[in-house]
């Protein structure tokens, strides 16, 4: 929380989307965000998952979940309209292992999400989709594509699942502005010196429909919070729009 509050104070974004908050709704630090000048909406559960949206302008049309009548999607999706822009914030399942039922759940979750977009939105109108998608889409999005090929978060089935969602009508805003290699948003704690060696993954994404993507003017990853004491293993991905 201190890292987030410091970052909000220094950068003053209009909207900040958070994933893997790991806190029940009754314990969410609402007052801290309010004191920082932000409204905040959230959906959480104890110890796992959790999503939130903090915004300077009061969010409208807040809703949670995939709402398709399927198996519970946990605390993984929250949406709101802010300054007339619909925003969908997701924490996509990680998948655990390729031979795990959780991996199949992840693939089905992407398929359900594509139907969610088709059910609620139009690709011809502004829409922002963001979050920890737990997929590095291309070889340039991981530190060692040959070594990692076929592993969870860099598997052909996951690539196909993400492409299917994007084909509904979404643009990778970060790659519109930053085509180069070696740009990552996640560095694993389980291996030593991953940040120092830049052994990272680009798992956190900002997507937009074409009408909104056309108004994007910049995108970047702020690596400095990952250098802080006791940081998250993910860092901030930022997109700028001229609306």
Description:
The chain contains 7 helices and 13 strands. With 243 residues, it is an alpha+beta fold. It has a 6-stranded mixed β-sheet. Helix 3 runs parallel beside helix 5. The mean pLDDT is 97.
Features:
single chain; about 240 residues; alpha+beta; six-stranded mixed sheet; three-stranded antiparallel sheet; 13 strands
* Average pLDDT reading: 97
Distance between the termini: 29 Å
How many alpha or pi helices?
7
- Strand-pairing-aware structural class: alpha+beta
Radius of gyration: 17 Å
Strand content: 25-35%
The ordered H/E elements are HEHEEEEEHEHHEHEEEHEE
Please provide the count of β strands: 13
Strand order of the largest sheet: 4-5-6-7-11-8
The helical percent reads: 25-40%
| Main beta sheet strand tally, sense and closure | 6 strands, mixed
In a nutshell, what does this entry contain?
Helix content is 25%, strand content 26%. The protein is α+β, with helices and mostly antiparallel strands.
Please give the structural blueprint:
Blueprint: H1 2-11, E1 15-19, H2 30-35, E2 39-43, E3 51-55, E4 60-64, E5 77-82, E6 85-91, H3 101-120, E7 128-132, H4 145-148, H5 156-167, E8 170-172, H6 173-177, E9 186-187, E10 200-201, E11 204-209, H7 210-213, E12 216-222, E13 236-241
Parallel strand pairs: 6-7
Antiparallel strand pairs: 1-3, 2-3, 4-5, 5-6, 7-11, 8-11, 9-10, 12-13
Helix pairs in contact: 3-5
